[in-house]
UniProtKB/TrEMBL annotation:
<keyword id="KW-0560">Oxidoreductase</keyword>
<dbReference type="GO" id="GO:0005829">
    <property type="term" value="C:cytosol"/>
</dbReference>
<feature type="domain" description="D-isomer specific 2-hydroxyacid dehydrogenase catalytic">
    <location>
        <begin position="28"/>
        <end position="113"/>
    </location>
</feature>
<dbReference type="GO" id="GO:0051287">
    <property type="term" value="F:NAD binding"/>
</dbReference>
<dbReference type="Pfam" id="PF00389">
    <property type="entry name" value="2-Hacid_dh"/>
</dbReference>
<dbReference type="InterPro" id="IPR050223">
    <property type="entry name" value="D-isomer_2-hydroxyacid_DH"/>
</dbReference>
<dbReference type="GO" id="GO:0030267">
    <property type="term" value="F:glyoxylate reductase (NADPH) activity"/>
</dbReference>
<protein>
    <submittedName>
        <fullName>HPPR reductase</fullName>
    </submittedName>
</protein>
<dbReference type="GO" id="GO:0016618">
    <property type="term" value="F:hydroxypyruvate reductase [NAD(P)H] activity"/>
</dbReference>
<dbReference type="InterPro" id="IPR006139">
    <property type="entry name" value="D-isomer_2_OHA_DH_cat_dom"/>
</dbReference>
Length: 138
């Protein structure tokens, strides 16, 4: 499938501080034509008609009324996190746009951290570790 045939998806950026992770971008490029926010803003008239989806990574890009109004063919906003508290679902749905998320993406790591914190607390690991740095006692 040629790049022009792939559905276009808007992302804030690829790599950098707030962009989509580069490994994730490689995966996305297999199924989508990625358009960065810089490319979109540089040629809004042409790009706005192509974009059918927005990929929200790390709560970015911000989904506001202005962005939704500028994307007439937008169908889906895909959020790469568990919650959607940062999205105005009522406003988004008023544009006929669906919102997806990944509700189980961090379930196992969250459980692992919870167990580690409980064990560390019960066994006083933090205090024991701090004592090791004080050196041997006489």
């Amino acid at each position: 499938m040629a790049e022009e045939e792939l559905p276009a998806i808007l992302v804030l950026d690829i790599g950098g501080t707030h962009g989509v992770l580069e490994d994730l971008a490689v995966l996305l490029k297999k199924h989508f034509h990625l358009i960065t926010m810089k490319e979109f803003l540089g040629n809004k008239e042409e790009m706005s008609k192509k974009i059918q989806s927005v990929f929200v990574f790390d709560c970015r890009p911000t989904i506001d009324r202005e962005l939704l109004e500028s994307l007439p063919n937008l169908k889906v906003i895909g959020n790469s996190g568990v919650g959607v508290d940062h999205l105005d679902l009522k406003m988004i749905s008023s544009f006929g746009v669906k919102v997806t998320n990944t509700p189980h993406a961090v379930s196992d790591p969250t459980a692992d951290i919870g167990m580690a914190l409980m064990l560390a607390s019960a066994r006083r690991l933090v205090e024991g570790n701090a004592l090791n740095f004080l050196g041997p006692s006489l």
